[in-house]
Amino acid sequence: MFQVSKSTGRLIEAMSKNREYATSSDGELFNALNQDYYEKFASVYGNEETEALNRAFLGAFSVIDKDYDGGWVGGSEGGASDSACIDSLFHPDIVSAGKSDSRAWSKTFVSRTLVGDPGTTYKYLGLRIFAHPWSVDDAETMEKEKLLRALLAASPPLSSPPIEHEWLEEIKASTSPFITATSPPLSTSFYYPPSTASALTSIKGANSALVSSSKQQLKKKVVGKHGITKDMLGSSKFTLTLINRMEPTAVRRDLKPDSTTSTVSGKMADSKTSVSWHTDSGLVDYSTIAIWHHHMPPENLSKKARGEVSNLWRVALRPIPSLLPSNAKIPALLVPLPANGGIYYMLDDLNHKFEHAVLAGGDGTRYSSTHRVARGGKGTYQFLLNELLAVLSCEHDFATFNAPKEKKNDETRRVKGLRRLLSLINEIEFEWIRQWRVQGEGNAKRNRYWLTKFALITSAQNFLLRIRDEMKTWLMNGCNGREGFEDYYDILIEHWESRVKSAGGWKKRLEERVYSSLPSIEQPVSWGSSEDLSTDAAEKKSKKARKWRLGYVDGSMRNEKKRERSGAEDGGGKKKSKKDKKGKKKKKDKSGGLTKKEQKGLGGNWALLKGKM
C-alpha cells in the first residue's frame, strides 16, 4: 500500500519513535517522509506563477468577498449594474460529519464559496452547494432549456407556487426576460454586477493556469514511479474550486485542538484545526487536487513573530488509519505555509490514501482556492435537464392505456417510464429543491444564476407532479376496470415509501438548533412548496395507495371467480363455497395491499407490513 525501500523504512522507523508528527525543523526525518511516504504531495512558492495567481485571486476576492448593504435588482437589459448591491459570496455552511441515521448538524468554522463550470454542484457532508458560474452555459444546454420551456408552455397552465418574500418577487420579475428570451446571455454579467462577473472570469483563468501546472507536477512526481505511465494518470481538468476564508486563532477562539499534534508536548501542542482531518469526497478517482493559498499577517506583527510556529498556518497529512498495517506507524507531516502565497498539490492517489487537515495560524486571515475534478452525473444541471427531457418524451396519457398494445413491450416500456418519472420527482425534491431552500434567502440572493435555473426546475417539477396525480386518479378508479396493472400500484407505493423516509430525514434535520441560531436571511425557507411533504402526509398517501391496490386486486380476483363460476355452471359444475372445510367464513386476504417485492419477502415481516396498510 505504501511503497518505500526497506532501508528508508528502517530509517524513518528509527527516527520517528514516539513521534506523532514531523515538521520542517526535523530535517532528515521530514525530508525522508516527504520524499517517500508523502511523495505525491508537492508545493511551489515564490515564483512568477505564484505571484500571478496572487494577483488574480486577491483581485477577485476583493470583489466577491466584499460586504454590501441590501439587495439588488437587474439593469435595463437584464444585467446588473455596479451600483447594485449583493452580499459577499462567502458564507459558512451547515454540514454533518455523522452517519445518515445519527447526524448532528453544525456550522463550519470556515466561510466558503463555490465557483466552477456552469450547472456544477458539489455535495459534501450532507449539503449540496451550487457553483457560481465562471462562464455562460454552452449552446447545447441553452438549446435543451429552450426545448424544455416549449414542452412546459404547450401543457395546460399550472397554478404558480406561492411567493413569500418581496425580494423574490423583484428578482423573479428581473429574471423573466431571460426565462422567455430567444437570445441567451453572452456573459455572466447577466446574473451578477460586471465587477463580480469579471472576478469570476478571473478565477476561471487562474484555474486554467493550475490545470497546466498540475500536469507538470504529475509528469515530474508521478510518471515513471512505481510503474505508473502517462496513460494511467488521473484527471487534472478542474471543473470547480471550493474557495475558503479562514480566521486565525486570535479571532476564532472556538477552534478545536488537533487530535494528532495536541497529544504530545512541545510547541505544537496548542495546535487548533480550522479544517479537521478528512479526505475530499465526490471527486473523480485518482484526480489531482491543486490548492492556491495566501494569508496576510497584521502589519503591526514583527518579522520574528510572523515566523513563530504559533503564528504559522500549516497543512497536515497522515495515512488513513484503516489502510495501515496494525504494527505500522508513519508520523503525520506538518508543512508550514508561507504568508505570501503559494500552491500545493495532492497528486494521483494521495487523496485515497491520506487524510489532510489545516492547522490555524495565530494571526492573519487565510484564503485557499481548492481546485478539483468533480464527478459529473446526477450532480449537474445538465444531467437534470437530460432526465427531464427523457421523462417528458415518454407516453403518460392514461386515457390511452385501455387501448390494445401496439407492440409486445409496450407495457414494460410504460412501467419503466413511470418508475423513472416518480424517481425523478423524488430526486428533484430532496436532492435539488430542498438542498437549495435549506440554505436560505441569502443564498438565493447571492446566486442569481441558480435562481433562474430553479424557476425552470420548479415549473418542470410541478408538471411532473401533475402527471403523477393523473396516474394516482387513474389507479384510484381501478384502472378503468382493466386488469394486469398491479405494477403501477407498486411503483406508486414505493414512491411514497421513499418520500416517507426522505421527508422524515429532512424533518429531523430542520429541527436542529443550529438553523434557529442563524440570521433570519440565512435560515431555511419554504417558498414555492409544491405539496405537503410532512412525514404524516406522505404516510397517509402511502396507506391510501395500498388500499387502492388491495381493492384493485380484490376486484380482479372477484372477476376471475365470476369467470370460474360461469365456466363451472356452463359445464354443469357446482358453485364453490366461501367457507373453508370447517365451515368457518374465510378471513379477507390483505396481502393484496403489498407490492410484489414485499410479498416475496413476506415471511416473518407480516406483522410489520400489515402496519403499513
Question: What does this 3D model show about the protein?
Answer:
Keywords: Cytoplasm, Dioxygenase, Iron, Metal-binding, Nucleus, Oxidoreductase. Belongs to the fto family. Residues 552-613 are annotated as: Disordered. This is Alpha-ketoglutarate-dependent dioxygenase FTO. Strands 2, 3, 4, 7, 8, 11, 14 and 16 form an eight-stranded mixed β-sheet that branches. A six-stranded mixed β-sheet has the order 1-13-12-15-10-9. The protein has a two-stranded antiparallel ribbon with strand order 5-6. The protein is elongated and about 95 Å long. Helix 4 packs across helix 12, helix 5 (166-180) crosses helix 12 and helix 13 runs antiparallel to helix 15 (535-570). Helix content is 41%, strand content 14%. It has 613 residues and is an alpha+beta fold.
